[in-house]
Amino acid sequence: MSASTSAPVSVAVIGAGMAGRSHMHAYRTAQTVFGTDAPPVRLAAVADLNADFASSQAARYGFERYETSWQAIAEADDIDAVSIVVANHLHRPIAEALLAAGKHVLCEKPLAPSVEDAQAMVTASENAPGLVAATGFTFRRSPATSAIKEQVAAGSIGDVLHFNGQYWCDYAADPQGPISWRYEGELGSGALADIGSHILDLSEFICGPIVEVRGAELPILIKDRPVPLGAALGHAGGVAVSDERRAVTNDDVATFVVTYESGAVGTFSVSRVAVGFANALQFQLFGSRGAASFDWHRPSEFGFVDLVPAAATNGWRQVMVGPEHPYVAAAQSMPFAGVGVGGQDSFTYQARAFLDEIAGLDRLPRCATFADGLHNLAVEEAVVTAARTGAATKVG
Fold first, then answer.
1. Which own/partner contact pairs does 366-369 have at CB distance under 8 Å and 24+ positions apart?
2. Are 128 and 103 in contact (CB under 8 A)?
């Protein structure tokens, strides 16, 4: 397939907030990675209920126009593929409408607010053959985490025994931070769904499926928050607030233990009130003959230890991400160890994989599917059940 003779793939982003901007940037830069075999990308439209957000971000990232409703994107004849990057409770109706309109969909995680909604989205995707329906789990696209997955698959650390994962953020640590949709869902829709979904998916990406959850706790630590006086962006830091307060109804922290299909165990700690940790995902992976570790604060490296070197000099070593690892050689403009990668690179690689699948190219691992997003929610549902009952809960 030649880009010069292929029709462009016309893309739109619904949601001009924090993550939406990462999708816009990704579509703009996806054309610069993994060669020139793919069709060109046409940056068609950005949609957001807030016209100022939509217009400013469409201009910033070079999209042709902006809209103030998602329905305008669904009804547009000139759009082929769409990212959904809005509040979780809106994912299902938007995805169903886009798929019914014949458009490919990349939906941010968590896929939906409930397993039932996610199942309906999976059904909608199954009723739209030929369309790509993907869930956005960007940490799968990290060269370092992908390199660890390759080492596990090759048997370099032996049988996986224990995955210990943490995702700590502090965006909700201030009790005066304004209330938003992030804080008003059901138990499990807070820290667990917002950031726990990422570390859960990443653990299964490396270790295989989770089959049981136990020992779960989902406390609400900040009981209420002030109502904002204006439109808020992202996690709403800095927006003015009123004297009125509304109750927080979902979890600030999630801790739990899981069992994988292989028999390995996983331990998890997730928090949105971890002062001093703006965005701290990390994990340690232990096998029968070695171990690996990753820290998002140092995304261009991973830790590794095995039994190959002599005991006198063996120990943990720092492995710098380079052209021998996934994504780097064909994507980085300077494909050398130590140059570095970051979060926006992961969004770009995800967008490129989504566009490649639409174009029928087989160069990159496929994006997570709607079915993967449904499974992720089923694990979260099991965490909620285990927290409420105090009993071990199978993933249904």
1. 366/134, 367/106, 367/132, 367/134, 367/135, 367/136, 368/134, 368/135, 368/136, 368/137, 368/140, 368/201, 369/125, 369/133, 369/134, 369/135
2. no
Judge whether 148 and 160 are in contact, CB under 8 Å.
Answer: no
Does residue 153 register a pLDDT over 50? yes
Q: Give the bridge partners for 165, in sequence order.
A: 268, 283
What was the pLDDT predicted at 161?
98
pLDDT of residue 233: 63
**Is it true that the peptide bond before 226 is cis, omega within 30 degrees of 0?**
no
Kindly report, residue by residue over 80-92, the tens digit of the pLDDT. 999 999 999 999 9
Residue 184 makes CB contacts below 8 A (sequence gap 6+) with 246, 247, 248, 249, 250
For the chain, give the mean pLDDT: 95
Strand blocks (E) in the chain: 9-14, 41-47, 65-67, 81-84, 104-108, 133-136, 160-168, 210-217, 224-228, 241-247, 253-260, 265-271, 280-287, 290-295, 301-306, 317-320, 368-369, 393-394
Of 31, 20, 107, the C-alpha closest to 60 is 20
Average pLDDT over residues 75-83: 98
Whether pLDDT at 187 is above 50: yes
CA atoms within 13 A on the CB side of 248: 26
What are the pLDDT digits (tens) for 363-391? 999 999 999 999 999 999 999 999 999 99
Asked whether the beta carbons of 361 and 1 are under 8 A apart, the reply is yes
C-alpha 208/C-alpha 201 separation (Å) is 9
